[in-house]
Amino acid sequence: xxxxxxxxxxxxxxxxxxxxxxxxxxxxxxERIAMVTxxxxxxxxxxxxxxxxxxxxxxxxxxxxxxxxxxxxxxxxEIIYHSRAVVRGTRRAHVIGDMPFLSYQCALDAALQxxxxxVKEGGVESVKLEGGREIAETIYRMVxxxxxxVGHVGLMPQRVHAMGGFKVQGRNGDDAESILEDAIAVSQAxxxxxxxxxxxxxxxARITRSIDVPTIGIGAGVDCDGQVLVSYxxxxxxxxxxxxxxKRYEELFARGVEATKAYVSEVRSAAFPAVEHTFGLxxxxxxxxxxxxxxxxxxxxxxxxxxxxxxxxxxxPVTEAHAYGPTH
Length: 328
Fold this sequence. Notes:
Order of helices and strands: HHEHEHHEHEHEHEHEEHHHHH
Mean pLDDT: 89
Distance between the termini: 35 Å
CATH class of the largest domain: Alpha Beta
């Protein structure tokens, strides 16, 4: 069902950095930012058609696509590869490329080059960096180069070992103040949005009030200017991890298992493929085949059935001739 708020926000126009930044002022009218992760063209088309505002090609692909235990093994080349696919599947949403571990932390020049590759080779429209005050200069330089930046504070998955695991951050006063200072620093450095992950709802609200760019929460409470979820989580495609902050809007993993069981059963019982899934000869070709069979029965040396002529091949209906389309 489409609401008044949906109709205000959902347009066919490409969503840009200025448009997202302007949502800070219009959230009261129901224009909060809806962001998801995407890793391929098919998911990108699906999410784009659903009306999401932004898609993050996240280093979370290491866990949900590659089966890794963390995001740390993901490389810049892998993010670029997946970004290209997402960009090809997207028409409206803003596409953000995640900068993976060690692609920006070691040296400023290397960071600028990595961000440039994500935009130039990956086709993304902005990049996301984890960190606070220590990367403010890097963000400033990227923005000055014309590369839009999304910040990321709070729980930072690339620092999973330093944080002792994927644990909520900012629960005590000093930690909360530090995270708030990080958010202020990256926004002042030029980030046009800031992801706030894994913090108490009160801290998420305080950060949102304290900076003049939109906050995107993930496990940071409802008062952020927008929300982001991993697409595999919101669709219920991950059967092993169920974080508290995730709402599963479907259970597609379970439905996929049942659908595949049905396929396996039909293959084994020869119920699939049925007639409607099977190709046949043209009528003229079938007549030729019958004639050849009759001739062969009257001859000592059977002749091979005649192959369909080129004319017969050319007359195959379009729907059948192109049944194996560009996706196969």
